[in-house]
Amino acid sequence: MSSKVKLVVIGNGPVGHNFLEYLVESGQSNEYQVTVFGEEPLPAYDRVHLTSWFKNQDVADINMVTDGFYPNNNFILHSGDKVTQIDRARKLVTAESGLEVSYDKIILATGSFPFVPPVPGHQRDNIFVYRTIADLEKITAAAKTAKVGAVIGGGLLGLEAAKALMDLNLKTHVVEFAPRLMAVQVDDGGGAMLAKKIQDLGVSVHTQKNTQNIGDGDNAVHKMSFADGEELETDIIVFSAGIRPRDELARQAEIAMGERGGVVINNNCLTSDEDIYAIGEVALWENKIFGLIAPGNAMAHAAVDHLTGTGSSEFAGADMSTKLKLMGVDVASIGDAHGNTPNSRSYTYVNDREEVYKKIVVSEDDKYLLGAVLIGDAAEYGSLLQFMLNKMELPSEPEGLILPSVDGSSAGIGVDALPDSAVLCSCMNVSKADVVEAVQAGACDMAAIKSCTKAATGCGGCTALVTQVLNNELEKQGVEVNTDLCEHFAYTRQDLYNIVRVEKIKSFDELMQKHGSNSEVGLGCDICKPTAASILASCWNDHVLDDKLHGLQDTNDYYMGNMQKDGTYSVVPRVAGGEITPDKLIVLGEVANKYNLYTKITGGQRVDLFGARSEQLPLIWRELVDAGFETGHAYGKSLRTVKSCVGSTWCRYGVQDSMAMSILIENRYKGLRSPHKLKMAVSGCTRECAEAQSKDVGIIATENGWNMYVCGNGGMKPRHADLFASDLSDADLIKYTDRFFMFYIRTADRLQRTSVWMDNMAGGLEYLKSVIIDDKLGLASELEQEMANVVGTYQCEWKTTIDDPIKMKRFEHFVNSKLHDDNVIFTTERKQIRPASAQEKTAEIAIEIS
Amino acid sequence: MTITSSNFTQDKQWFDICELIDILPSMGRCALFNDKQIAIFRVITPSGTEDFYAIDNFCPFSNANTLSRGITGNLDGKTVIASPIYKQHFDLSTGVCLEDESVKVNTYLVRLEGGTIQLAA
Ligand code: SRM
Ligand SMILES: Cc1cc2nc3c(=O)[nH]c(=O)nc-3n(C[C@H](O)[C@H](O)[C@H](O)COP(=O)(O)OP(=O)(O)OC[C@H]3O[C@@H](n4cnc5c(N)ncnc54)[C@H](O)[C@@H]3O)c2cc1C
Ligand code: SF4
Ligand code: FES
């Protein structure tokens, strides 16, 4: 051990942690005896996504450390212990706990702290900053008794803090010293548009306000007094007036510092002491502090490379372009947004109706892009950024890049033209070459690209561009991105859906005749027929065995049961919300006994009866329907179950009646045919016994209503659902769910669960919210109408079928005999039937059940 | 095998199986014939002609009597049935499996005579 290099990492924020990850990746970590100090009580968490902590108030959501990372790598982590001194002469680090650790090398990753201007009154209670989980905990607690909140500082972080205050149900104000919001990133025009949009959302924006005093309020906790004589009363104040590097250790140890603070580093991230590196927001490179994560990570890389000698990357500055969504408003700033370059030209596009502002700054000769500001619509961010970063020549009329195109196509960039080295995703430092390589290694959709390159998993701003590169690459490889449904239709499922809706097509034959690829000879196949059946059902909701539809159904839908491996079917009656009376349970037992069916409680809170031969199905369902059961659609690509917990009626923790809600929504959406199956769940409180966060739509009760989660999945590739909206009323919950399902049905691919649909959605969750909640596409009422039609035309497929004597004949196994399929042979196990194995069948030990 | 003309195989003896209406358009049904389970399909082409096919009902991939319950269609110019369990396709004219040509099910002679569907022995 003594031969190892003693390495002390001070600061366990995102950059300090990523340094350790890179050290492990370098393969050299065994050469070091690593000790890490972190002042915060928790191991590293993702500060960039700090605001997501509010969602569940659970650190796990933003935790950066994989299980066992520190112990497995023999890294010693002291959380909650702040380093108070670096003794360079004795090569010793001292911590607040009294712990002393000697070092050979130090990595200084202490980050920065929020600057609080020394306004009189700034030390009063109920005044906060927005930097750590501890800060958010304090804000949350204070908000419980507060009505009004004000953020001082209208920059990027200030607006994020304002959003948090809004979400805490406070009347929210943003107070900015400069004449516009986001003064660093956007110009006057952009700032004005941004302010307008944010005010539309209910936040009051006050610019050119210099806070001079904070004192007691008359109607609220504080009164802020401004230089212009105006006043503002508020219960909570959050300062977000910029950051300052946490350079106190370096100052005390007399390491070279910048005039206005920050620890000076060179391209290898070495400080003036050659045994001490500084990385992240504490570091000053060419007189600049970089307040973003990507440059911090690049520094961490450079430091690992230099320290271990395993690589040669150097820190060479960073592009500070940003794209984000603030309160649902797209904001992007690229390069020289203010047009400070001498002789530069700029082109601006302003659309007051849509509240869009776009500006590009180009070189004198119109050849190169220098900067851009986009507010309200940042679709061009990816391509503009690439033009700038790669110094690509602009098209002859560069303004075309931001003007809305007449034919709807985007001028943009041909991704082919991008050099391999172009960084597509700056958060995760993924280049075009990385994406291309991943595609060559077999990744063929966005979900796969995300998991193997990490591209688009940070801020998400690069999703559209990465998708374009992916598709372009697939095309080139001849993995023809053939989106045709099958040889019979040169359309995607989404296209066909629209065609069916718009042309009011009611049958497969009509669809084939009008739109089939080769309609003179085409019969369709087992891909397009069930797809068409599903689309027709989503649109018109006719019975599955309707004359023009039955031939399209997969056997499960045709027999309204799941075919098992021996050709028998399962019977699953609906048990909405899992609630069932004893009498009904008895009926299930009696029916199972009478027909000798294998009985099992499913993973979906209901009962499955297995081993029914096709001719038994109508008899069994007759009895079930008479007893008040309906089909459970266990066979359909449609709503399966709404899992529930018992909720406030019985449970001592329940805050809403989750049973009533689950029964209501199960009955509302039962029978809804969709691209893939749909599952829902309702939990009565945050303990989440119904596992709602693993469902397509999950609902969790809150004190004030319901939190709605979307696009979760159990199954093969589990995905936690995303929080979509909070504290909804019953009516809003239903409204959003209606819209959500119908939008999914309209736009998803065949057999694409909502989880995969979301992972492939350009714009992701925010986009989905803008469509469903803000009605950005103006579709909401149409979607609601469509759902109302489905709900209004529901019928129990089994009930309708058994009432029709002609349809009953189809269930006989033989068209010309009443005999049974003699290959269906059961044996008994644990007192119930099961299909006999091939050996058992030949050995004739099985007993035939008839 | 498509047989629509009655004088094609004079040496065969034809047996009535069921009425035309017992098999719905573009669907299959299973018939019991000489102790064998035979899947009969009624395929209607876009030009309106009705073709009949007969193959084993037994699916060699799932070892279950299920082929009559698959979806009919065409792929690559061949009229096929998709196995309802594991979705392999069988050419209805030859019985050959499209995914694995070494697997083949038997085909049988079938025709429509008047309103009656017949199999030949
Ligand atoms: C019966 C049941 C297992 C049980 O004995 O408990 C079951 C049985 C089947 N599941 Fe399941 N799943 C059952 C609950 C689940 C659950 C749990 C749940 O819903 O809470 C999951 C994970 C949750 C999810 O879907 O996100 C589940 C994930 C799957 C998947 C993987 C889906 C995915 O997106 O990854 C499949 C395969 C598929 O759909 O492509 C599948 C497919 C199937 C099929 C349809 C396979 C098949 O084609 O034969 C099985 C049909 C059995 C039958 O005849 O009824 N089953 N299956 C459960 C029926 C619940 C019900 O009452 O309807
Ligand atoms: C709300 C919010 C949103 C943001 N959004 C974005 C975004 O969208 N995109 C983006 O690129 N960036 C964003 N950032 C900035 C990003 O979080 C920072 O760039 C990043 O956290 C810097 O990492 P760091 O490790 O250098 O510093 P920090 O995250 O500050 O971590 C330093 C750690 O060191 C600890 N420490 C300090 N001194 C000592 C000591 N003496 N002993 C022991 N421990 C010590 C601190 O307590 C802290 O835990 C955001 C920041 C915030 C607060
Ligand atoms: S886990 Fe697999 S085997 Fe079990 S029920 Fe689900 S699909 Fe069938
Ligand atoms: S650029 Fe932020 S995720 Fe790719």
Beta content of chain B comes to over 45%
User: Unreliable segments of chain B (pLDDT under 50, ≥5 consecutive)?
Assistant: 1-7
Radius of gyration of chain B: 13 Å
Main beta sheet strand tally, sense and closure of chain B: 4 strands, antiparallel
Task: Give the % helix of chain B.
Answer: under 10%
- Broad shape of chain B: globular
Describe the structure using short key phrases.
heterodimer; A: 850 residues; alpha/beta; five-stranded parallel beta sheet; 26 helices; 37 strands; globular; disordered C terminus; B: 121 residues; mainly beta; Rieske Iron-sulfur Protein; four-stranded antiparallel beta sheet; three-stranded antiparallel beta sheet; 0% helix; disordered N terminus; binds siroheme; binds flavin-adenine dinucleotide; binds iron/sulfur cluster; binds FE2/S2 (inorganic) cluster
Describe the fold and architecture:
The complex is a heterodimer of chains A (about 850) and B (about 120). In chain A, the strands form eleven sheets. In chain A, strands 3-2-1-7-19 form a five-stranded parallel beta sheet, with no helix packed on it. Chain A has a five-stranded parallel beta sheet with strand order 9-16-10-11-12. A five-stranded antiparallel beta sheet of chain A has the order 21-22-25-24-23. In chain A, a hairpin with a 6-residue loop joins strand 24 (about 355-360) and strand 25. Chain A contains 26 helices and 37 strands. Mean pLDDT of chain A is about 90; it is low at about 405-410 and about 845-850. With about 850 residues, chain A is an alpha/beta fold. Chain B is an all-beta fold. Chain B has a single domain, classed as Rieske Iron-sulfur Protein (3-layer Sandwich). Helix content of chain B is about 0%, strand content about 45%. Chain B contains no helices and twelve strands. In chain B, the strands form four sheets. In chain B, strands 2-3-4-10 form a four-stranded antiparallel beta sheet, with no helix packed on it. Chain B starts with 13 loop residues before the first strand and ends with a strand. Classes of the chains: A alpha/beta (about 850), B mainly beta (about 120). The interface of A and B includes residues 551 and 824 of A. The structure holds siroheme, flavin-adenine dinucleotide, iron/sulfur cluster and FE2/S2 (inorganic) cluster. Flavin-adenine dinucleotide binds near residues 37 and 296 of chain A.
